[in-house]
Amino acid sequence: MKGPLVDPESVPAWLRPLVEISGKLDSTAFTRFTPPEDELTRAASVLILFGHGERGPDVLLLRRADTLGSHAGQVAFPGGGADPEDDDAVATALREAEEETGVDPSGVRPVAILPELFIPVSKFAVTPVLAHWHAPSPVHAVDPAETAAVARVPLADLADPANRFQVRRPGTTYKGPAFTVNGLFVWGFTAGLLTVLLELGGWAREWDRGDVRDLDVALRDHLLATD
């Protein structure tokens, strides 16, 4: 299932465009990857939680612990693999978000489901769940062994051209969008998804797509600047 979970007119005006368009999208709006027919995938969900803070609309992000075996140190949406006890993708997203960030699910209203997206590296089939944080609660890194930091990042900061560029991996065909914002270095799956959401939500600004940096160098420079 994909598309709105609620009447788009019932969500704040700044979030309405995303809810309205959610049912018209397919995976190609976000990624070029499709699950191989002969390969098993694992179901997962992420919670794309939009709130409204002092500086306008924002989104909840976390930085994974540097000691994790996969995607160590990367910035991500709260989320993870589905458990047998989860009723659906929404339940997975809410459970994972609570476990990772301590967010109170009672203050979160799921409003739309985006198309399932395949991540080749981990072989996850990820369902993004859009939600409105109508009653924000305190958040923090619940388990430092899994989560290093949690932050509400204003969409205006993500859209700021000064915080945007592209990264590439020398020796590979990979090139994709990246952000440095609020002490976070965002790239990969999360940056790609944010890039599309900024466009669809009407928050995007023109930025220099010709600014392409080697991933390792950009990450090193970021770490030096934030030490």
List the helices and strands and how they pair.
Layout: E1 3-4, H1 16-21, E2 42-53, E3 56-64, E4 75-76, E5 79-81, H2 89-101, E6 108-113, E7 117-119, E8 124-133, E9 147-154, H3 155-159, E10 164-168, E11 175-181, E12 184-186, H4 188-201, E13 212-214, H5 215-226
Task: Identify the notable features of this structure and list them briefly.
227 residues; alpha+beta; Nucleoside Triphosphate Pyrophosphohydrolase; 9-stranded mixed beta sheet; 4-stranded mixed beta sheet; 22% helix; globular; hydrolase; NUDIX_hydrolase_dom
Architecture overview:
The protein has 227 residues and is of the alpha+beta class. The protein has a single domain, classed as Nucleoside Triphosphate Pyrophosphohydrolase (Alpha-Beta Complex). 22% of the residues lie in helices and 32% in strands. The protein contains five helices and 13 strands. The protein has helices at residues 16-21, 89-101, 155-159, 188-201, 215-226, and strands spanning 3-4, 42-53, 56-64, 75-76, 79-81, 108-113, 117-119, 124-133, 147-154, 164-168, 175-181, 184-186, 212-214. The strands form two sheets. Strands 1, 2, 3, 4, 5, 6, 7, 8 and 9 form a nine-stranded mixed beta sheet that branches. Strand 7 (117-119) and strand 8 (124-133) form a beta hairpin. The radius of gyration is 17 Å and the shape is globular.
